[in-house]
Design a protein that fits this description.
This protein is of the alpha+beta class. The chain has three domains: about 90 residues; about 60 residues, Rod shape-determining protein MreC, domain 1 (Thrombin, subunit H); about 80 residues, Beta Barrel (Thrombin, subunit H). The chain is built from two helices and twelve strands, in the order ααββββββββββββ. The longest helix is centred in the first third of the chain and has 79 residues. It is rod-shaped. It starts with a helix and ends with a strand.
């Protein structure tokens, strides 16, 4: 009726007061609707921002994981390259293997290695890292690898020589997982701290000349039948991840 009267020109004098009254009546509802719309839009923005932040966080985690994997692979590839170079230079056949476990016993120092070429492994084979540094020997086989007894294991014994003038011979033994000693060194030979210790080749499956470490302390007691020395291994035996097994 209002629309009809409006177009008929019958209520022009009422239009302005009526519009004012309607605006006043609907103003609270309009303001509430405007605030509600602003609240909804704000929540939408916050939800969108939260979603973007969650996506960014997920992407950052994925990137960090990929970066970590890439660093590990790079490190392993570098170690494999050194083993391959040592193999080519010295004409050794080497089977590469990954360290997949270790013994946490303080007195026993062994690691578990895994390789697809397990059929070629056998007890007593030399195990090296990097450019032919001897770290131990295969102790016993497993279904997909072997246990390696490290040179600092209490039961480890490796025939060795010191690269001094006399080429002094002896036995490199583990000291309860804490140190490495060379025993049975002839007393009348001159040993200097810092000289290198290598495998002697007197064991059938351990080639001559594999680096073991360096003399740190030399002990030559007056009434002892033999001299002995403390040997510092050439690598950190607690941080071995990739190894090579020398196949005769």
């Amino acid at each position: 009726m209002l629309i009809f009267f409006h177009y008929a020109g019958l209520i022009k004098w009422l239009e302005k007061p009526l519009q004012t009254a309607i605006l006043r009546a609907t103003s609270p509802v309009y303001k509430l609707g405007t605030k509600w719309q602003a609240y909804i839009e704000k929540n939408k923005d916050q939800q969108t921002l939260s979603q973007i932040q969650a996506q960014n966080l997920s992407q950052n985690i994925q990137l960090q994981a990929l970066k970590a994997q890439n660093e590990v692979l790079t490190d392993e590839n570098e170690q494999l390259k050194k083993l391959a170079n040592f193999s080519q230079t010295n004409k050794y056949k080497i089977i590469s293997a990954k360290v997949v476990g270790k013994n946490i016993n303080n007195t026993e120092k062994t690691v578990i290695i895994s390789t697809p070429d397990v059929s070629q492994l056998k007890s007593g084979l030399a195990v090296v890292v990097e450019n032919g540094i001897l770290i131990g020997k295969i102790d016993k086989l497993t279904a997909d690898g072997a246990f390696v007894r490290l040179i600092n294991d209490n039961q480890s014994k490796i025939a060795a020589i010191i690269l001094n003038k006399d080429r002094s011979t002896g036995i490199v033994e583990g000291g309860f997982g804490l140190s490495v000693h060379m025993t049975l060194i002839p007393r009348n030979e001159v040993i200097v701290v810092g000289e290198q210790v290598v495998s002697s080749g007197l064991e059938p499956q351990i080639p001559r000349g594999l680096l073991i470490g360096n003399i740190a302390i030399f002990e030559n007691e007056a009434f002892a039948p033999f001299a002995q020395a403390v040997v510092v291994p050439s690598v950190d035996l607690d941080k071995i991840t990739m190894v090579g097994v020398l196949i005769p």
